[in-house]
Amino acid sequence: SHIRHAWDPTKSVAQNLAEMGLAEDPNKAVPIPKKKLLGMEVESDGQEQGKKIVRKPYVVNEMEYEASLPEKKSNTLSRDLIDYVRYMIQNHGENYKEMARDEKNYYQDTPKQIKRKINVYKNFYPEEYKDFIASLKQEKMEVQ
């Protein structure tokens, strides 16, 4: 969006990018240094011919700032997996072997796979898990 706002439709792509301080051809912008060829050293000229003036440096600055922001974690679990885990804990507690034999175990998960799914749920939603366990304990207290 930063490039789009600074774009001048009357100029070519190369001119627009040069004004923003961006490279049109990455191979020319960052040249690969020459290596030794059979004992002979090949020197490369480190300076480019005809340096361009950057007229719109704010574009690069805004892009660098946007890239430096931390990425938001948007990991969530599916509603089906959450319901599955809650059902298993509600009916079987910590007995993973019993969970593996349950009729709702459609994917025929092994006890270790079920335990792993429960641990993933615990890690993603620790507060919700604590509340859920507390409500289960509350129900058991009321029944007795």
TrEMBL record:
Cross-referenced Pfam families? Nop16
Protein's UniProt keywords contain Nucleus: yes
Provide the alphabetized UniProt keywords: Nucleus
Localization, UniProt: Nucleus, Nucleolus
An example GO biological process term is: ribosomal large subunit biogenesis
The UniProt record lists the keyword GTP-binding = no
**Entry's InterPro entries?**
Ribosome_biogenesis_Nop16
Q: Which PANTHER family match?
A: HSPC111 PROTEIN-RELATED, NUCLEOLAR PROTEIN 16
The family line of this record is:
Belongs to the NOP16 family.
Entry protein name: Nucleolar protein 16
Organism whose genome encodes this protein: Scopus umbretta
